[in-house]
Design a protein that fits this description.
Strand order of the largest sheet: 3-4-5
Largest sheet: 3 strands, antiparallel
Shape: elongated
Number of helices: 5
Bound molecules: zinc ion
Strand content: 5-15%
Radius of gyration: 25 Å
Number of domains: 2
Low-confidence stretches: none
Length: 140
């Protein structure tokens, strides 16, 4: 434990804010409220409280950069999670919208079945539904 003026370390500061455990937890929306440390880990909470009160830091600018990095990593993780979610979704496997490349969904319209863009009504891209003859489906 250090007392007095703390030498700010950018590396340590980023490391503390960008642990995978923390980013994953936050991106799932399980951000613990302030003061929760006393429940999950009272020993660490007591240490942190004392540490924060007995040391002085001097770098308000770095916080901005750190929060930007966190946002970036959080976005990447959400993107990866979205990819996995799409794989198991009920969208037709390799069919994509001719306008925006979004996955297409099989729909039943008044003129029969067709593939509609999953971003409908923002995108009105459609594809003709071809009745699968044998094993080879969308080999156009
Ligand atoms: Zn589309």
């Amino acid at each position: 434990m250090k007392f007095g003026i703390r030498t700010p370390s950018l590396k340590k500061r980023i490391a503390a804010r960008t642990s995978w455990k923390r980013v994953v937890r936050h991106s799932m929306g399980l951000k613990a409220p302030r003061g929760y440390g006393w429940i999950t880990n009272p020993k660490r909470a007591a240490y942190n409280r004392l540490y924060n009160r007995t040391t002085v830091k001097a770098d308000p600018l770095i916080a901005l950069g750190v929060s930007l990095i966190i946002g970036l990593i959080g976005g990447i993780i959400k993107g990866i999670a979205g990819l996995f979610a799409n794989k198991e979704g009920n969208t037709s496997n390799s069919m994509t919208c001719p306008h925006c490349n979004a996955p297409m969904i099989l729909r039943n319209g008044t003129r029969g079945r067709f593939y509609g863009c999953s971003r409908f009504p923002r995108c009105r891209g459609t594809r003709e539904y071809v009745e699968p003859v044998d094993g080879s489906t969308n080999a156009v």
